[in-house]
């Protein structure tokens, strides 16, 4: 290599990688420093880092983004999204992402974050995945604050008080399509060069989601008793889409009183409900108590599982088996 042009090459390389990686910070450059020869940094060869709040959103981003993206999940598996407070390290990771996909409805930490992102001018594109979704209000009897919400700072509580909207938007495949469209629009914005690729992927995933929806309808067809009891009210959008009625055990994010439990047992007997659904993230004590009273059982269904379509198939199988 001609030594005279080496400094120029290095400058060019650094300049190009800064340009290509935008705000993603260090560690994303593909430049080979020992040879300095890796000048073909085009921007599109480097996967775009996309942060998401919840595990199910990973599939949405990966299906649209394919090998052009890599994802970072903010809320770790098993954590309660309603009360989770990400560490400064996790926030740092998200603020270095090119795009951050929020749930966008009543997730207390997201509100705090978006303000902070703006104050540090991180340059991360915030994509509100609930944009365009018809939001459902939490019914008076299934309004929940999230366990331990009162322990948090005032700003975290306010969101719940103000909105009373149901944040569990992704449990409806129809909503998932809107979330996917929002993700597509975000990717097309941060990486316009691959817009056609993203659009093709989006359309293919739409077909998968439409088939999922058709399978769920088929499974639930002809069920007469369409009531189900669930510990935490995560399945409201699912219930609304498939003409089911969700009866939550949890009341305003708290364990129900003995009186509430007695009422629930009566209701379960009246509606012939034999199964209490719980999610792995929630407590089982009162769910177990109700199940014992009605001679039924407790079954876990996870609204926060990875592999969205596979999980929704699994969950709808469980619903179908346990509705009469
Ligand atoms: Zn929840």
In short:
The chain is of the alpha/beta class.
CATH architecture of the largest domain: 3-Layer(aba) Sandwich
Structural class based on helices, strands and sheet pairing: alpha/beta
Strand content: 5-15%
- What is the element string, with H for helices and E for strands? HEHEHEHEHHHEHEHEHEH
Features:
single chain, alpha/beta, four-stranded parallel sheet, 11 helices, disordered N terminus
Explain this structure to me?
- The protein has 324 residues and is of the alpha/beta class.
- The chain has three domains: 1-44, no CATH class; 48-213, Nitrogenase molybdenum iron protein domain (Rossmann fold), CATH 3.40.50; 221-322, Nitrogenase molybdenum iron protein domain (Rossmann fold), CATH 3.40.50.1980.
- The chain is built from eleven helices and eight strands.
- The protein has helices at 6-21, 56-65, 88-96, 108-120, 154-163, 173-190, 195-220, 236-241, 258-270, 285-294, 308-322, and strands spanning 48-52, 69-73, 99-102, 125-128, 227-230, 245-248, 275-278, 297-300.
- A four-stranded parallel sheet has the order 2-1-3-4, with helices on both faces. The chain has a four-stranded parallel sheet with strand order 6-5-7-8.
- α4 (108-120) links the parallel β3 (99-102) and β4.
- α4 crosses α5 and α9 crosses α10 (285-294).
- The protein is globular, with a radius of gyration of 23 Å.
- The chain starts with 5 loop residues before the first helix and ends with a helix.
- Bound molecules: zinc ion.
- Zinc ion binds at residues 82, 168, 232, 234.
């Amino acid at each position: 290599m001609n030594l005279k042009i080496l400094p120029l090459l290095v400058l060019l390389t650094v300049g190009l990688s800064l340009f290509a990686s935008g705000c993603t910070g260090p560690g994303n450059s593909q430049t080979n420093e020992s040879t300095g020869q890796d000048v073909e940094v085009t921007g599109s060869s480097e996967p775009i880092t996309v942060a998401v709040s919840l595990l199910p959103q990973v599939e949405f981003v990966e299906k649209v983004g394919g090998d052009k993206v890599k994802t970072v999940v903010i809320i770790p598996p098993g954590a309660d999204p309603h009360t989770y407070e990400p560490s400064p390290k996790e926030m740092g990771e998200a603020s270095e992402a090119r795009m951050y996909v929020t749930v966008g409805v009543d997730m207390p930490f997201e509100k705090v974050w978006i303000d902070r992102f703006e104050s540090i001018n991180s340059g991360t594109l915030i994509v509100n995945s609930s944009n365009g979704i018809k939001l459902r209000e939490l019914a008076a009897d299934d309004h929940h604050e999230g366990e331990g919400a009162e322990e948090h700072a005032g700003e975290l509580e306010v969101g719940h008080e103000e909105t009373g909207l149901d944040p569990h938007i992704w449990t409806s495949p129809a909503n998932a399509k809107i979330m996917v469209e929002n993700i597509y629009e975000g990717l097309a914005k941060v990486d316009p060069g691959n817009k056609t690729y993203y659009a093709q992927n989006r359309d293919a995933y739409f077909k998968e989601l439409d088939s999922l929806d058709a399978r769920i309808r088929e499974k639930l067809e002809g069920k007469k008793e369409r009531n189900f009891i669930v510990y935490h009210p995560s399945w409201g959008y699912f219930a609304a889409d498939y003409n089911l009625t969700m009866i939550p055990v949890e009341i305003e994010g708290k364990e129900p009183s003995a009186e509430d439990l007695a009422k629930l047992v009566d209701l379960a007997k009246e509606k012939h409900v034999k199964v209490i659904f719980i999610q792995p993230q929630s407590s089982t004590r009162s769910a177990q108590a109700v199940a014992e009273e009605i001679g039924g059982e407790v079954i876990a269904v996870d609204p926060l599982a990875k592999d969205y379509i596979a999980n929704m198939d699994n969950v709808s199988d469980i619903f179908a088996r346990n509705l009469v």
